[in-house]
Amino acid sequence: MSIYTLAREAGARKVRRGRFELMRLSRPGERLDASMQREMLFAFAKETDLIYQADTSFHWLSRKDYFAGIEDLWLVFLDRELVGFTGIRLFYGADEKIVYIDNMNIRSIPLLVADRHTLGSMLVHEILRANYPRSVPPMSVVFRTQNPSVYRLAQAILPPAVYPRMDPSTVRDEERCRRVLGFMAQTLSPGKVFECDVSVIRRAYGGHIYGRPMSSPISIKPVLANFWKEHVSLENGDAVLIAVCPTHPEVRGLVDTYARTLIRWMRRVRGPRI
């Protein structure tokens, strides 16, 4: 059974964004039986093998309980072929709602989705739309990664609200960011050393998950490459925790702007009514 069919049979909701189909499967641990979960993990390993040109099966096939803690599984298809996926976990701590984006893996596809949104930007904004809190507490977004390209996805949300910083500028609310990241480091990697100044969890993983550099030097800014070189030991399993801590009005503005972008794009695609 194809992953596309498997997700639909499990009850995933589907929307079209340009040439892409986006599926959201809530509570996948309850909706996927054991055989379906194994099939999904094999598909993830196959996809990340392709993306990173390395054997990633040891990582995925060891995570037999992966779906149990996932709130939403997001899958992206192009012509019914899987081209991206991520899992979302929700936490309430550090006085706010925290959306943890786990293992965001996206193929490098030179197709814009809607207006100027890349595939990664689209997926991040769809996740914001789905989880935007209409009332208190505020909401942050957190990534744990060995891949420097993920930092660019965080910046696609709101650059001034991103921590850690890759340049001399300061984050607007460093105390809040550190509070959120401290909570998440303890939650995701209990007992591991967390260096808050650089937001690195030492030995978060068993080693370099994907076995090779995941971004070519020319694809990321030098300041980002230098940060990874100076502060992250991939061989030892280090991971960077990245937080985006916007205010309530900022999250509302991001969600509303994205919604308006989709409406304008859909009107252009459909053309004028006759």
Main beta sheet, described? 10 strands, mixed
> What integer value in Å does the Rg equal?
18 Å
Count of strand segments: 10
Please trace the helix and strand order, writing H or E for each element.
Answer: HEEHHHEEEHEHEHEEHEH
Summarize the model shown:
The protein is α+β, with helices and mostly antiparallel strands. Helices cover 37% and strands 23% of the residues. Strands 1, 2, 3, 4, 5, 6, 7, 8, 9 and 10 form a ten-stranded mixed sheet that branches.
What does it look like?
It contains nine helices and ten strands. Strand 3 (72-78) and strand 4 form a beta hairpin. The chain is α+β, with helices and mostly antiparallel strands and 274 residues long. The model has no long low-confidence stretch (mean pLDDT 88). Strands 1, 2, 3, 4, 5, 6, 7, 8, 9 and 10 form a ten-stranded mixed β-sheet that branches. Helix 5 crosses helix 9. The protein has helices at 3-9, 28-31, 34-52, 57-60, 119-131, 149-155, 174-188, 222-231, 248-270, and strands spanning 13-17, 20-26, 72-78, 81-93, 96-106, 139-145, 162-163, 194-195, 200-201, 239-244. The chain is globular.
